[in-house]
Amino acid sequence: MAESTGLNEACGVFGCVATGNWPTDLDVPHTIYLGLIGLQHRGQESAGIVTSMGNKNSRYKIKKGMGMVNGIFHEEELLKLRGNLGIGHTRYSTLGASDTSNVQPFVVETLHGLIAVAHNGELTNAKSLKTKLLKHGVGLSTGTDSELITQLLTHTPECGEPHGANWIGRIKRIMSETVISYSLVIMHDDKIYAVRDPYGNRPLCLGKLLPATAFAGKKEVDKDDLDGWVVSSESCCFNSVGARYYREVLPGEVVELSKEGVKSVYIAPRPNDTPPAMCIFEYVYFARPDSIFEGQMVYTVRQRCGRQLAKEAPVDVDIVSTVPESATPAALAYAKQLGIPYGEVFCKNRYVGRTFIQPNMRLRQLGVAKKFGPISENIKGKRIVLIDDSIVRGVTMIPIVKLLRAEGAKEVHLRIASPPIKHPCYMGINIPTTQELIANKISMDKLAEYFDADSLQYLTVEGLKHAVQQGIKDDENDRVGHCVACLTGQYPVKIDW
Amino acid sequence: MAESTGLNEACGVFGCVATGNWPTDLDVPHTIYLGLIGLQHRGQESAGIVTSMGNKNSRYKIKKGMGMVNGIFHEEELLKLRGNLGIGHTRYSTLGASDTSNVQPFVVETLHGLIAVAHNGELTNAKSLKTKLLKHGVGLSTGTDSELITQLLTHTPECGEPHGANWIGRIKRIMSETVISYSLVIMHDDKIYAVRDPYGNRPLCLGKLLPATAFAGKKEVDKDDLDGWVVSSESCCFNSVGARYYREVLPGEVVELSKEGVKSVYIAPRPNDTPPAMCIFEYVYFARPDSIFEGQMVYTVRQRCGRQLAKEAPVDVDIVSTVPESATPAALAYAKQLGIPYGEVFCKNRYVGRTFIQPNMRLRQLGVAKKFGPISENIKGKRIVLIDDSIVRGVTMIPIVKLLRAEGAKEVHLRIASPPIKHPCYMGINIPTTQELIANKISMDKLAEYFDADSLQYLTVEGLKHAVQQGIKDDENDRVGHCVACLTGQYPVKIDW
Amino acid sequence: MAESTGLNEACGVFGCVATGNWPTDLDVPHTIYLGLIGLQHRGQESAGIVTSMGNKNSRYKIKKGMGMVNGIFHEEELLKLRGNLGIGHTRYSTLGASDTSNVQPFVVETLHGLIAVAHNGELTNAKSLKTKLLKHGVGLSTGTDSELITQLLTHTPECGEPHGANWIGRIKRIMSETVISYSLVIMHDDKIYAVRDPYGNRPLCLGKLLPATAFAGKKEVDKDDLDGWVVSSESCCFNSVGARYYREVLPGEVVELSKEGVKSVYIAPRPNDTPPAMCIFEYVYFARPDSIFEGQMVYTVRQRCGRQLAKEAPVDVDIVSTVPESATPAALAYAKQLGIPYGEVFCKNRYVGRTFIQPNMRLRQLGVAKKFGPISENIKGKRIVLIDDSIVRGVTMIPIVKLLRAEGAKEVHLRIASPPIKHPCYMGINIPTTQELIANKISMDKLAEYFDADSLQYLTVEGLKHAVQQGIKDDENDRVGHCVACLTGQYPVKIDW
Amino acid sequence: MAESTGLNEACGVFGCVATGNWPTDLDVPHTIYLGLIGLQHRGQESAGIVTSMGNKNSRYKIKKGMGMVNGIFHEEELLKLRGNLGIGHTRYSTLGASDTSNVQPFVVETLHGLIAVAHNGELTNAKSLKTKLLKHGVGLSTGTDSELITQLLTHTPECGEPHGANWIGRIKRIMSETVISYSLVIMHDDKIYAVRDPYGNRPLCLGKLLPATAFAGKKEVDKDDLDGWVVSSESCCFNSVGARYYREVLPGEVVELSKEGVKSVYIAPRPNDTPPAMCIFEYVYFARPDSIFEGQMVYTVRQRCGRQLAKEAPVDVDIVSTVPESATPAALAYAKQLGIPYGEVFCKNRYVGRTFIQPNMRLRQLGVAKKFGPISENIKGKRIVLIDDSIVRGVTMIPIVKLLRAEGAKEVHLRIASPPIKHPCYMGINIPTTQELIANKISMDKLAEYFDADSLQYLTVEGLKHAVQQGIKDDENDRVGHCVACLTGQYPVKIDW
Hints:
Four copies of one chain form a homotetramer.
Chain A: E1 11-18, H1 28-38, E2 46-52, E3 61-66, H2 69-72, H3 75-80, E4 85-91, E5 106-110, E6 113-120, H4 126-136, H5 145-154, H6 167-177, E7 183-188, E8 191-196, E9 205-209, H7 212-216, E10 228-232, H8 238-241, E11 243-248, E12 253-258, E13 261-267, E14 278-279, H9 281-286, E15 292-293, E16 296-297, H10 298-312, E17 319-322, H11 328-338, E18 346-348, H12 361-366, E19 372-374, E20 383-388, H13 397-406, E21 411-416, H14 438-441, H15 444-450, E22 455-458, H16 461-469, E23 482-483, H17 485-488
Parallel strand pairs in A: 14-23, 17-20, 20-21, 21-22
Antiparallel strand pairs in A: 1-4, 1-10, 2-3, 2-4, 5-6, 6-7, 7-8, 8-12, 9-10, 9-11, 12-13, 15-16, 18-19
Helix pairs in contact in A: 4-5, 5-6, 10-11, 10-16
């Protein structure tokens, strides 16, 4: 239930390179468009696509807009965007910015040609990087970390020219100056660079675009038959562009995509040999359940969270249920683990009305009831445990329990498949201020009462980590670790804020 | 899976009368707006609201538009629509009509003042009614049955004036001239007439608007405290407007809503004492699961369909699943009945892209894959039975089975929680032509093979009827019956087409 | 200066028939589009086009919209409207009607097929016609006279069928029931009927569409080479559609346009042998100066008005000028007649801003100054006479004189090339209420002082009539007469209001 | 007739400072809005407004958009833009840029706070300035000279900090690096800097905002009563914002506007004591006739051009006329000088239709005829001289002469009130390529024949200069000079292109 309460992902990035030359079987702009549709859950404020024919002096074709991917790109625009490679971006709605100057990808002209940059994440040392650029005399126009990265890429420190047109060198320099958090796709000439910060805080993965023959039939695909390569924040969109999951971009890795294929060109070290720190909430809430991180499907992890929760916090009830729909895998697993029937208690109205400045008390009282229709037969006289994935501000939980009570629930127990959120995130997630977090407002032992629930229990931090990490193969060279800063207050790096 | 394959509901109607006078606690236009949001699944092409202060010469305030309810009504429009009563309508997308002349409610001036009419249904004798009006010299501008009803209401037969300003008399006259199918809300002066055809083919029900105090707290509400009354195609929207289910409008009944309350003013007889004939597909597919028809919740009926299907067509598999999300209750019940685990095999992308005139074969091949992400762990190596609520043209089932096979399903069985659709509907449902229906194209014994499934079975007509009717209280005076014409070809009345 | 002060034309009508069959050299929808652009000054609220292939059962193609012609019709719409004949309409902004139900042409289905109707004018006996239809039991949905006409055309009086499919008979019947004011174009099957009321109150004329060869070169055109025929409210648009002026539709005449050519089929008599009564303000203000009425160009008539004004009301000044731009021909002629130089005193800003609810007194004071930039050299120290075509409410004249005074004008005299407007119009012109008319608010001898002018004189009614009528050939059979009701209060017919 | 043939102004700039603090009588955003409406003729592609409360850390309020000023700014936006000072910009449509990233004013954050910049002009040494910035490592995102200026302002050369927060110093540095052409308004903290390049190539002038009492009545205004100060590309908009013309910003001058008033802070020298070089086409065509440059009204200069043309190229005809409407003052003066009557031969349709990809030859042939209705009485049998302000590509002149011939003109002579355009402009004017200019395509002695005219003569360069310069007071310290490069090929500076 994080969605409606302020826990918001910052962005999705996508890139695509065709192995052939236009016109080809692979329609690059269309593929990026479908990729962004598949990443829409990571950002709904705005979106953009930049493509290029990939020659030295190719003009970049740019289309950006406010709103949903569907509303921005129409057939004629996609036709105009034709090219041999390109990158795209979806952005979350943070402020009601009235113009498109903040919409990514950013394109700038540099001494060595055009570059386009799309970024997911938030730089923890943005402040000092910004001061550095301002001192250098660069005027900044958007106030975004992504513009910082773009200008830093073109930046020539101390008026020298240490890297010239060597873009990999320039990327390495940035990675040494800022370590968290960013997943980047950068387009220059005929190449896309996929860059993931040393901590791997935000996800990024690679896929190969199969030829039409491959997904029409079922035969194996020869490597030389590939139509192209994609890079994406999540693998969930691979199915919808005709791509097969290839592998993750590793923490700190720089991968070069071109028509020759993908090539790992660098792996940046982490300071002090600290473990990686992928955001654990990608598993808990942000990612689509059919995405794959660290070799495991998110859906599977959510089921493990539900099973773990059942072990840590069982309850004797008639029915296990959930608030549709992100906590369903956890709820199904919780039910199975305890051998209690799973049933639906709410029907979610897919068409939710505009939130008006409600004209009177009557309609204000209705609140969340607009969204959920109760399934009486599963509520009346029943002892219910409601599984949710997380609680942020707790504002929707109150009317939901009230709705169940009004429909005659005998008992209402709450079980949350993640620990209490208590601390701010400085790495790309839009969390309400610390004071607004319900876990900081109400003491744990008063919380059940606050929601008018018969009992309430969260998953432990250890339980969550166990659920996530038990599925990760513990390679010798690859350590396991996740960022749980919003739960524990222990940040992977010192925050320069 | 009827939704994406052409089985479409025609409309939703809604009406609201305040017990007090403006300004009151009850915001009539806002209430209708929220009611239409709750009926949005019954029609997404266009919507309209008409309100009135309810005095003899009150001007009607009208706002109609193309598209979704949310896109049409903004706060300022709702403020302009203020009134003491009003009606609304949502309409299904049939043709790409480029203007709003077909959008309901229709408002006409008559010799006896203004009337507004909203209609759900389709008249089986529209042709002869139309000829009658044309012969009378009325020019018809929209080609809709709803305009026919509106003009018939104002019509003065044989140039006489048998009913004058007696609108109940006029409604009775129409009910004697056309018996199926219509659920109407008609506004005139300070009254709304709720009218359901003698066969009760389309649903219509009443609700009372509780005062804010009632849903804030939990106390019982005094009858005199009511804020108003609503009439709606379905009860699912009552929760979101702060209304409590009161009762159904009976087949053939005319109910008058005014600030004095609701009053049954007439019950039209059915010819030859035939049984009622509510559309059984309202239970199977169209209605929202939290709506109540004939004393039972639709969700409950769908679960009974699943249970009945398990009895009629069991199968030995590892996992019971469904294509999200309308068949979920049937699938859960099917699984429970057979004691087989229920699990999700698809993650549905909520953000589906525009359907372009696909530029090349590659993207055309992707098809339905854009919408569904497979949950591998529930598919790989598993024997799966997929429950769906209905099959219409069968076009999406093919790629869905292919997707399961591609992910490594060991067996794929299909079970459909309703019988094969074989015949056209003339009573308000947009069904593809008979030739397009898969049940008419492929013989039953070839169908599993056609979908590349290991087996396929439908629920029987008797099984469906039993699942629906076993929950209806068999009152002495109230006979039980449903329209199953699209399954059997036996229509409740002779079709004048 | 009538434009900005509330004297508004009601509508423009246009029709077009191709002599060939689609596909032909003549693009019918494009021709109507260009025709409506040329009639845009007669109505800017909304516009519509209806076309047909012209066969017995041809579907009508309809496109209507709110706003300017340019904003409504785009290339793809015009392509969809392809047909062999069609009619169009532009409508004036009267009320801020929020939907398109009032937009013409109206299309209705009748017992004898489809008809489309476009109307310019206003029926003086609308009230009794409406009562007749309502009594007959027709529900009326738009409140417009044009819907009345459409329903009257389909109407079968006393339930008999006196005319059946005989549309000319039906048109004659309407002309006997209502005599003023209407210019109609009616489409049915392969014909367009052009109908002008017996008084000829609103203009209507015919043109022949020359083949491309004709306006490419200069050669004479063979009659058989014509591409088609057009009918239009004004001839000013003929040039822009490649048509040559043919003749006026006479008062009371019904002309049938088809691919065979034009045919006069009826001339309705005027009651009591009264003279015709074309609206004299079509000459004074409404029409475009390059239109032709009664054998004379409007520009010429306006020059005669200026000359007559110079004779009736000369003044000794340094410069003759005008408020741009409708009074320019009158001003040029006034100057020439008196031998005084003509010069411009105002530069009109073509881009006028939105009228906001002005936030403070400062900006409210600016008023008309936003529109006009003074040309100082023609003002400073000069004695000026300002010629205007008419004064309605007089609100803009005050700041205009103030502007001239502020720029140092020595004397400011006002001469109006038409008499004072004192009475309402019931025949299609939107005039402010009688109380708002400046000629009724301030006595004639106080008016100069009211405007802070040194003198003010209007053209006399006789002078105006003389200026208009001296150019009309006085045929034996054709009497001369014009409606000057708004000036004298003497209406051509009794007003049933 | 330059307008429709490709001679396009690049931009308009506007700035406003209130003397009081918000809330005040002066509504700053509204004033800028009205100012931009008055500068709309200088750019119709896009517009923007930036305002500030003027405190050290005031957030800048920004609203930009594509299209006309009227379409971009609505009342609610202007309310949000409230501030004590602000600047605005209108931009000409050059390319069909699909997003707003090029829309000015530009706002950037610098080490010393926010600055906003609006620019009219084009830098002749843009290329080397750009290289300099790129070498410094600044990524450029818009490809506009205006972004160059903005980044140069924030630039710290050689990594030193020669000017720090001293913005006047920074402006001086820019003026030493680029001398033509720019008129700038720059906002920082509580000040607006108005900057005109040393050659004064683009206009810029100052006005004082009178209190409401001043333009309500007529009394003189005390200096202390001023509501504020404005700076604008042209004075024509002063009337519409309640401002009185104060003076021009001199070539090379930097003026500081603040609530304390206006202060001249610097005058940059011109290299080698060359004369100033204001674009002479501002007089000929671009500027609105009621604007004042160099102490004279543009209208007056255009009349002098007409008079000079009459002296240089008289012709014996019956009527002097013009193509509406920019050449009217020249035509009136030409007529007066020769004692030949002036008359109108064309009525211009204010509502011109969309230019479609014309579907067939017939409509393509119509061309310019759509725009102009001939006034026959002034054409038929007449010897006509048509005065136009300029000819660029000559494409519209052909159909215009044909139209006159078709209406029966006996002779058609052409006189152009400016010399032939033969060379490109590198200083802010969008001129077609040299090859497209008619003066380069057809030899002078063949041109009359090419247009099918009886004779054709242009004003001489000397004649034009005389007409412009005779009205400029020749102060001792202020030399007179204008840029006539597009006529002679002699540019005021060497072009680095």
